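#struct-help
A.M.: can someone run this one for me? Single chain, 192 residues.
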Amino acid sequence: MPDRGTQILRAAARLIARSGVRGLRVEEVAAEAGVSTALIYYHFKNRSGLLRHTLEFINKRAVRYTDAALDTATDPRTRLTEMLLLEFQDTPEVRENSAAWGELRASAVFAPDLGEQLAAATRDWSDDVAHLIRRAQESGLAAPDVEPEPAAERLTALTEALSERWLTGIAPLERVRELLRGAIDRELGSRA
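D.P.: on it. Structure tokens below:
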């Protein structure tokens, strides 16, 4: 059984994915987690602290499900492709993570501290993608004239946008995967 803090963060992620951030109430999180509001305030101090920790929880969960699957990828280009495609798994955890991330991103417009935390997480993700692009270039699996940082920013932004289309039913899962694979091929160029 997860510890109480993790139990609370799971409940917060579920509620954010389902109902968004702006109307999120600590009392609702407590009811969803089956704990008292006092326990939430004990662990997270206030609503803002709960949101910050929930974002960290969502990020760590995404790293966990992408890293586990990346262990089987053999070359950097395949690792990059798999890392981004793993954002489109039709599992409750991935759907919840993607929906919650989108809700937190939308709410950051009105919460500068949350925006800073989201920007840092996005930079880290983009840096990981840029690193894999550089490794693919070194291995002859990406065109040498590709600029890794801008390509990584475009690919992560596209992944977020495709996630919204998938989650809202605008585009089916296979279509967003196909679009992402095509974008990776365009960004990285032909294999040398």
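A.M.: thanks! DSSP finds nine helices and no strands in the chain.
D.P.: also worth noting: The mean pLDDT is 92.
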